[in-house]
Amino acid sequence: AHPTTKVSGTLTNDRVEHACVYLNQRGVGTDVKLEPGRSYIIMPSTFEPDVDLDLVLEVYADEDIVMERLEEPVTVSTKGAWSVANDTAGGCMNHPATHWSKNPQWFFTAPPCGGPLSVSLTQEVAPGGTLHHAGLKVYKVSSDQRLIADPQDESALLLNTPITNAPTIGDVVDTQPGASYIVHPFSFEPGKEASFVLTLAGREAPAGGAPVPASEVRALVAAGKWVGLTAGGSPNNRGTWRNSPQFLLEVSAPGSVTLTLSTLVPNT
What we know:
Layout (H helix, E strand, L loop, with lengths): L73 E9 L23 E4 L5 E10 L9 E8 L15 E4 L7 E8 L4 E8 L6 E9 L4 E7 L55
Antiparallel strand pairs: 1-8, 2-7, 2-9, 3-6, 3-8, 4-5, 4-7
C-alpha cells in the first residue's frame, strides 16, 4: 500500500532497504538501487537525539520520480497491564499451564479508509527498572468476535512480532476498510508484571477510537480432567466416548461465544 504517514513501530533490519554511515560533516550522500512500482520512505536523522538543525533533502534520478513530505499520523492510545493479582499475566503460548488467553486482548475496527496502520506496545518502566521480553500479535476477526479462540490460526494472524525486551515493539499491518481486529500483547514468561501503552497510528483514527479491552467480555472458566473411566476418547469410540467430561452452557440472549480448551502436560 502507498504510505501516507510516517513510518513507526519497530525498525527491524528486514524493513531497511539501505542505511548510510553517520558522518560528522555538513552533508552526506549515497547511491541506492530501487525497484519500480514500489514505495519507499526516506528518513534522515542525526546520530544523537535533540539536535536542532534545518535540512535539505535532494534526490537525483535518470527516470521520473515523485517525492512528498509524509503527514504526521493520527494516533490513539490506551493503557493496559499484565497483572498477577488480576490474573492477566499468562505469558506466551509456551506456557499453557498459565493459560495464555488470560493476557489482555484489545478489539478495534479499522478506519473507513483502511490501509497501513501502525500497532505498537510501549512498556512503562521506572528508571532502572527491568524491561520484560514481550511480543505482540494482531488477528483479523469477525465484527462480533472479542476473544481469540485459536492463537495458531495462520489465516487470521496478520502480525507476530519478534519477542524482545525493547522499550517499544510493533509493526505496520495493512487493514481493510471497516474490518475488525484483535491485538494480543504478551510477555514471554508468565507472572511478569508491567504496565504498557498500546498505540495505533495511521492516516485516520480507528472507527470508534481507541481499542476496547477484551476484559469487558464475560468469561467463565471450568476445570476438568480425563482420567480412568472419564478418558472416553472421541465419538469414534462408540462404547466409551460418552464417559468424557461434559459441561452445560446456557446464554441469556443470542450472541457469539468463544471457547478455548487448554491441556496441561504433566512433568516427566
